[in-house]
């Protein structure tokens, strides 16, 4: 099947890609271009990566074969649609063809970034997202994602290593999300992040009524550069407030758990730990993931090839979490930061999302004592 038969009149735009790459990278930088299946498969390859040098990639995208190059990157070996992304970090060496790029492959990071979605719980329109961005320091680059969303990038005056970049991004995110409240902004803080490649086609997800659309560059000023130390200074107070919220969540968690009734005799820390473990292990055996998640609007999607079960959060048809990991069947791995999960505060505080903790949240309205009483009654 030809590429044109998949996307109709929607065509890739190499000029948009060139504008993005030349705004965020220097000529000799190596980064990763990633094609991801929009419709994931359980057997076969879902990710197709290629390590490129910025100067060489720009030259190819400025030549006569530019459209064919981008269309080729946008199509899998079996003709499947691939959404195109790029790593915000530069890399050393080549990334494996079936990987997005990992933290240990990063050389440095050259920008901070934000993803502003237009959807329920986030911005109501692209114009609202733009109005929000105008209240912030002017980005180096603004792109339109093709889904109605907006991506902003603030280029650093000097590149940072992965750990330093994550520190800046975490602090910057605290400021961005505080200024946007109550609107939800995706929590993007990792240095190995990939963002949508301008010029590529954004394909509609299952159930969407949208047509395929090209991600485009809306604004750029390559002279806009920001000292990372200044970004940290501007966001320090918001980052401190965010950390206090996390500490408060952890404190509440500890206070609830230590209030377990005496079902195992003895005093001291070890007796308390045994009492808690006894309650939680009993609940894990009594309830299934379906009994915990489904009443709260979660939807079971599929079982993958290694036996993990994939779930969609309320209001979504895409994978938001996985359960039944081999060796850890009673722990949920949450892939989404959306408040619609009902778990984002626990995820941010690094509280294990066990069956018992999710049952406490979803079935007992966060009342630990009520959950304990129910377990003992069984």
List the topology elements.
Elements: H1 3-7, H2 14-24, E1 30-37, E2 47-53, H3 54-61, H4 66-73, E3 82-87, E4 89-91, E5 106-116, H5 126-133, E6 141-144, E7 150-160, H6 162-180, E8 194-196, E9 201-202, E10 213-214, E11 216-220, E12 225-226, H7 228-257, H8 269-286, H9 289-293, E13 299-303, E14 309-312, E15 321-323, E16 333-334, H10 344-348, H11 355-362, H12 368-377
Helix pairs in contact: 2-3, 6-7
Walk me through this protein's architecture.
- The chain is an alpha+beta fold and 378 residues long.
- It has two domains: 3-235, Alpha-Beta Plaits (2-Layer Sandwich); 258-377, no CATH class.
- The chain contains twelve helices and 16 strands.
- Strands 4, 5, 6, 7, 11 and 12 form a six-stranded mixed sheet that branches. The protein has a four-stranded antiparallel sheet with strand order 2-1-3-8. Strands 13-14-15-16 form a four-stranded antiparallel sheet.
- A hairpin with an 8-residue loop joins strand 14 and strand 15.
- Helix 2 (14-24) packs antiparallel against helix 3 and helix 6 crosses helix 7.
- The longest helix is centred in the middle third of the chain and has 30 residues, at 228-257.
- The protein is globular, with a radius of gyration of 23 Å.
In short:
With 378 residues, the protein is an alpha+beta fold.
């Amino acid at each position: 099947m030809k590429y044109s038969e998949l996307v109709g009149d929607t065509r890739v735009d190499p000029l948009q890609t060139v504008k993005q790459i030349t705004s965020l990278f220097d000529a000799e930088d190596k980064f990763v271009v990633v094609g991801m299946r929009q419709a994931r498969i359980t057997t076969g390859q879902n990710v197709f990566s290629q390590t490129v040098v910025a100067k060489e990639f720009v030259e190819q995208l400025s030549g006569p074969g530019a459209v064919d190059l981008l269309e080729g990157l946008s199509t899998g070996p079996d003709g499947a649609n691939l959404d195109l992304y790029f790593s915000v970090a530069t890399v050393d060496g080549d990334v494996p063809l079936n990987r997005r790029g990992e933290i240990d492959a990063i050389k440095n990071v050259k920008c901070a970034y934000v993803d502003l979605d237009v959807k329920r719980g986030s911005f109501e329109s692209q114009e609202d997202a733009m109005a929000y961005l105008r209240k912030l320091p002017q980005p180096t680059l603004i792109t339109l994602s093709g889904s109605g969303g907006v991506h902003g990038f603030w280029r650093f005056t000097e590149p940072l290593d992965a750990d330093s970049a994550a520190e800046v991004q975490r602090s910057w995110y605290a400021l961005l999300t505080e200024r946007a409240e109550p609107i939800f902004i995706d929590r993007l803080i990792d240095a190995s992040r990939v963002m949508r490649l301008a010029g590529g086609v954004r394909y509609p997800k299952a159930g969407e009524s949208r047509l395929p659309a090209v991600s485009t560059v809306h604004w750029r000023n390559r002279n806009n550069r920001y000292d990372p130390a200044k970004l940290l200074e501007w966001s320090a107070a918001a980052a401190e407030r965010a950390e206090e919220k996390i500490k408060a969540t952890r404190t509440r968690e500890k206070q609830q758990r230590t209030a377990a009734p005496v079902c195992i005799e003895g005093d001291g820390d070890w007796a308390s730990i045994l009492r808690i473990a006894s309650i939680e292990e009993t609940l894990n055996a009594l309830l299934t993931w379906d009994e915990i998640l489904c009443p709260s609007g979660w939807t079971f999607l599929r079982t993958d090839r290694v036996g993990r079960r994939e779930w969609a959060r309320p209001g979504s048809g895409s994978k938001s979490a996985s359960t039944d990991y081999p060796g850890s069947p009673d722990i949920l791995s949450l892939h989404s930061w959306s408040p619609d999960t009902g778990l984002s505060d626990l995820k941010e505080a690094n509280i294990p999302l066990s069956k018992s903790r999710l049952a406490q949240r979803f079935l007992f309205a966060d009342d630990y004592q009520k959950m304990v009483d129910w377990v003992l009654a069984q």
